[in-house]
């Protein structure tokens, strides 16, 4: 069953002057059709200004479509009565860890969502414990968020969303302001949630390494969905990705260059292990190629 | 100077006073301050001081820590004392040209200084034993009756707790901006007061812009997590009165009764 469906979704940013007269329009999202299945891990890629964040804000009903419509778990985001239900079904984690933590103590921040939903006290405590444990931050429950690292803060923010028991979590570039260690922590946490609790994950990012483990990748450019497929399908089209000003994981790039140089490698290699395996295969099965290569270089 | 102000700082300890409901402490502090102004006899000050000393003992906050808080108001105390000393009319004890010290002046000056000391120590005892969060919670619930006359109590409490949460973040940001501006040759340390104030403009402008940006982000994050005002909101740690809180109210009533009795009898 699909949890999110977008039909011809478009959104215009309208700039107005002091009298409220329209000055100009900028179409950030342009006729996007989207179907996201329950339990999937979706990655949305795109360089700055491709409309990916704007699209994400629609899923949480923070923005409403200018044209077309978006359904979250069967609810139209335009219906005002269901806004709070939609926000509970689709949680959102933002980019800046400092600007989304409301509580002055970790557990209080995690409780903020359930408190807004009017959940009973005992249930709040249960949820706080469960969600903090699911992001491995339970030991820090009575700390001040100011004393945590970026990755830890972001995990607290994720716990805060998990405590609302959403069916789907949208992460809008959650790792953009983190160091590599923090990035790994956050992505591992998200994957774990997706695997163990079957939460649908929509990860918006421009780090290719984070995309590899997704079930499905969507590439956006100028407000349109331009590529869709499994990570392997997407990354086998290196030239297309370059055209949309996106990077490719280093391993994929190396494999692609080797393939162009005449090595018999498959398209869309994503991990180092895969590349090593393929290279071993070539060496064993086709010794001729291997011995010819160095000679070529000598010339 | 700023470091000396213990007013508004929290001293973590495990004591009866720390565990009291913030509403009790808030009401207690207000009544204590009022009592200092209403009952002006020396015997009242003595009783108030004894009461405060017992409370400080119970709170396990080191006395030295409390006294440090007084340093910040030392100048205020000095001015108060000097004015009362010289300007109270009465029997002259000592005179130099037009300046004269009167017997009543000495009395009033001493009492005023004692009153100020008790005032500051009394209120800092509350802030030292109550976390800012408890304090805002206590105000929200304790002043809840004001909602009837359309005072947005919940919103004010929410704003206060958010402000408290962002103080360290904005301090860090100020520091960063100052360093960035110094790196480009800004000078914050030399010149007179006006020049120094002017040199802060390039710090304040980016700080304000960033604060607004943060506020925007935070509002969006709060909305995304279903915040829609105080209505229908539950609490993870709702304030509930326990046995000790009732006892504390009785103690407070007892203190007031003794103060009134002392004023009437002497």
Describe the protein in words:
Chain A is α/β, with parallel strands linked by helices and 299 residues long. Chain A has two domains: 2-231, P-loop containing nucleotide triphosphate hydrolases (Rossmann fold), CATH 3.40.50.300; 249-291, no CATH class. Chain A has twelve helices and ten strands. Chain A has helices at residues 52-59, 83-89, 106-117, 121-134, 150-162, 180-197, 208-211, 231-235, 238-243, 250-260, 272-285, 287-298, and strands spanning 2-16, 22-37, 41-45, 67-72, 75-76, 90-93, 168-172, 200-205, 216-221, 224-229. In chain A, a hairpin with a 2-residue loop joins β9 (216-221) and β10. The relative contact order of chain A is 0.13. Chain B folds into two domains: 2-130 and 240-265, no CATH class; 147-224, no CATH class. In chain B, a hairpin with a 2-residue loop joins β1 (92-96) and β2 (99-102). In chain B, strands 1-2 form a two-stranded antiparallel ribbon. The radius of gyration of chain B is 24 Å and the shape is flat. Chain B contains eleven helices and two strands; from the N terminus they run αααααββαααααα. The two termini of chain B are 41 Å apart. Mean pLDDT of chain B is 85; it is low at 1-7. The interface between A and B is medium-sized, with 38 and 27 residues.
Secondary structure blueprint with pairings:
The complex is a heterodimer of chains A (299) and B (266).
Chain A: E1 2-16, E2 22-37, E3 41-45, H1 52-59, E4 67-72, E5 75-76, H2 83-89, E6 90-93, H3 106-117, H4 121-134, H5 150-162, E7 168-172, H6 180-197, E8 200-205, H7 208-211, E9 216-221, E10 224-229, H8 231-235, H9 238-243, H10 250-260, H11 272-285, H12 287-298
Parallel strand pairs in A: 3-8, 3-9, 6-7, 7-8
Antiparallel strand pairs in A: 1-2, 1-4, 4-5, 9-10
Chain B: H1 16-19, H2 22-38, H3 42-59, H4 63-71, H5 74-87, E1 92-96, E2 99-102, H6 103-129, H7 132-142, H8 153-183, H9 193-199, H10 201-224, H11 243-265
Antiparallel strand pairs in B: 1-2
Helix pairs in contact in B: 2-6, 2-11, 3-6, 3-11, 4-6, 5-6, 7-8, 8-10
């Amino acid at each position: 069953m699909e949890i999110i469906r977008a039909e011809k979704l478009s959104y215009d940013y309208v700039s107005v002057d002091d009298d409220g007269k329209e000055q100009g329009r900028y179409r950030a999202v342009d006729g996007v059709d989207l179907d996201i299945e329950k339990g999937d891990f979706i990655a949305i890629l795109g360089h700055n200004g491709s409309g990916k964040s704007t699209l994400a804000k629609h899923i949480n009903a923070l923005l409403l479509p200018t044209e077309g419509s978006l359904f979250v778990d069967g609810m139209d985001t335009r219906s005002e009565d269901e806004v709070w239900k939609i926000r509970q079904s689709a949680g959102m984690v933002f980019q800046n860890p400092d600007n989304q933590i409301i509580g002055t103590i970790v557990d209080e921040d995690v409780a903020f969502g359930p408190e807004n939903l009017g959940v009973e006290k005992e249930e709040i405590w249960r949820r706080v414990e469960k969600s903090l444990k699911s992001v491995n931050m339970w030991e820090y429950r009575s700390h001040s968020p100011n004393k945590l690292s970026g990755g830890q803060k972001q995990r607290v923010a994720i716990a805060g969303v998990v405590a609302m028991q959403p069916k789907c979590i949208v992460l809008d570039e959650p790792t953009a302001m983190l160091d590599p260690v923090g990035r790994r922590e956050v992505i591992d946490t998200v994957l774990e949630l997706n695997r163990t609790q079957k939460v649908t994950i929509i990860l918006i990012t421009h780090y290719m390494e984070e995309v590899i483990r997704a079930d499905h990748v969507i590439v956006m450019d100028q407000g349109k969905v331009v590529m869709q497929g499994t990570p392997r399908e997407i990354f086998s089209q290196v030239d297309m990705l370059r055209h949309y000003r996106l990077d490719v994981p280093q391993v994929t790039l190396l494999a692609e260059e080797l393939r162009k140089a005449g090595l018999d490698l498959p398209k869309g290699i994503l991990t180092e292990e895969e590349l090593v395996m393929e290279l071993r295969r070539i060496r064993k099965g086709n010794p001729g190629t291997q011995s010819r290569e160095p000679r070529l270089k000598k010339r | 100077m700023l470091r000396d102000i213990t007013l508004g700082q929290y001293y973590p300890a495990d004591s009866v006073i720390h565990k009291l409901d913030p509403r009790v402490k808030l009401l207690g502090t207000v009544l204590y301050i009022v009592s200092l102004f209403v009952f002006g006899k020396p015997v009242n000050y003595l009783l108030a001081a004894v009461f405060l000393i017992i409370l400080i003992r119970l709170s396990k906050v080191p006395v030295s820590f409390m006294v440090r808080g007084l340093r910040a108001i030392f100048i205020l105390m000095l001015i108060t004392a000097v004015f009362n000393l010289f300007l109270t009319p009465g029997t002259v004890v000592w005179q130099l040209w037009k300046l004269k010290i009167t017997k009543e002046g000495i009395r009033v000056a001493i009492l005023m200084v004692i009153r100020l000391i008790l005032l500051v120590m009394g209120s800092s005892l509350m802030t030292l034993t109550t976390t800012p969060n408890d304090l805002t919670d206590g105000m929200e619930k304790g002043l809840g009756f004001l909602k009837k006359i359309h005072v947005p109590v919940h919103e004010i409490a929410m704003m206060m707790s958010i402000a408290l949460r962002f103080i360290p973040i904005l301090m860090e940001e100020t520091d960063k901006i100052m360093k960035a501006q110094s790196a480009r040759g800004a000078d914050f340390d030399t010149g007179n007061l006006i020049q120094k104030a002017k040199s802060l403009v390039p710090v304040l402008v980016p700080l304000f812009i960033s604060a607004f940006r943060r506020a925007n982000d935070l509002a969006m994050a709060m909305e995304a997590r279903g915040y829609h005002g105080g209505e229908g909101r539950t609490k993870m740690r709702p304030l509930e009165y326990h046995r000790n809180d009732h006892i504390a109210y009785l103690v407070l009533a007892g203190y007031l009764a003794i103060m009134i009795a002392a004023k009437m009898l002497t």
